[in-house]
Design a protein that fits this description.
alpha+beta; 2 domains; 10 helices; 10 strands; about 40% helix
């Protein structure tokens, strides 16, 4: 009976916390909707949201003291903790013991000398962030990964670069200056994962725009937008929500894989002659035109979309906190 009462109290507390996070997300959603985000900004241009959240509201989403407890516990280990020095990621050191953990003192000392602390998938270790990510995923329809970056004063983790994911940056603590390079050489819109940044090819060709992010501010950058970020007199913690979905081309690849299972012509080998002449190219072109028409199949598209949806649904575990206790207490 006592256990049941305790479990009920925990459920009420969880529901209360969920409502608070829902309120936070609803505020962001309203701002994005009012700005016609998907028609004006999505995959097109950057968006700076000044005071997306008040300082008090931002603390509800990310609590620095909770992160302090997580980091100093030593439980964060590779691949969920690394150090960025001079633009390069390096694994954190481990304690010298039969059961090693992260050498937290080394991490903090390197931070004090200018290194950036990076925690990929920080949402896996902070339940409030995980709930917030789930709300973002439901709104955008795309899986999301949250990475934390903590940078000391007068430091810069990475040199100018672009990301291969669209990102939504949340300034969780302190202040950071973002330099957005509006033009650069050999630029291509919306690069995919085969089009990585190359500092010898991609060089800024203009004066960058500077945006100062303070606690509670947010910044959306489509993939391919070159940027860099630095601190001045304040420490900075920002969280990057990265959109890690499927490209249209990947959906088409899935359709081809599915069609190959049911249609033997998609499994025919291609014989390439010693000399690829115009006649061979024309024959293959006609063949591809004929075979690609078979992809114009609504049922095939639906099945492929369901496959993507299944992967999306499996991206994040459901909220199961209390599930073990329910089993131990023989609850239904």
């Amino acid at each position: 009976m006592v256990n049941n009462m305790k479990n009920n109290d925990k459920r009420k507390n969880a529901a209360f916390k969920q409502n608070k996070l829902d309120e936070l997300f609803s505020k962001l959603k309203k701002q994005l909707d009012d700005l016609n985000f998907f028609s004006k900004y999505w995959e097109k241009q950057r968006l700076y949201i000044n005071h997306a959240y008040s300082i008090e509201s931002s603390k509800k989403l990310f609590n620095v003291e909770n992160f302090d407890s997580l980091l100093t516990s030593g439980s964060l280990m590779n691949p969920h903790l690394d150090i960025v020095e001079n633009g390069s990621k390096m694994e954190s050191l481990y304690t010298n013991s039969p059961s090693p953990t992260t050498d937290v003192l080394d991490v903090l000392n390197r931070y004090k000398t200018g290194a950036t602390i990076r925690v990929p998938h920080i949402e896996l270790f902070m339940p409030d962030l995980q709930l917030y990510c789930k709300s973002l995923e439901n709104y955008f329809g795309i899986p999301i990964r949250a990475n934390l970056y903590m940078t000391p004063p007068f430091s810069q983790g990475f040199q100018p670069h672009f990301d291969l994911d669209d990102i939504l940056v949340f300034q969780a603590h302190g202040k950071k200056i973002w330099s957005c390079h509006t033009s650069y050489s050999n630029s291509q819109p919306l690069p995919n994962r085969d089009m990585t940044f190359n500092e010898s090819l991609h060089r800024s060709t203009g004066i960058p725009d500077e945006i100062e992010l303070n606690q509670g501010d947010m910044l959306y950058l489509p993939r391919g937008f070159m940027h860099e970020a630095r601190t001045e007199e304040q420490d900075s913690i920002h969280i990057t929500f990265a959109f890690i979905g499927n490209y249209l081309g990947e959906l088409m690849q899935q359709m081809i894989r599915a069609k190959s299972i049911e249609d033997v012509s998609f499994r025919n080998l291609i014989r390439v002659p010693q000399k690829v002449n115009d006649e061979f190219i024309l024959d293959q072109f006609k063949l591809f035109q004929s075979e690609f028409k078979k992809l114009n199949d609504k049922k095939l598209l639906i099945n492929s979309l369901n496959y993507v949806k299944h992967s999306f649904d499996k991206h994040r575990n459901p909220q199961l906190k209390g599930g073990l206790m329910a089993i131990l207490n023989n609850e239904n």
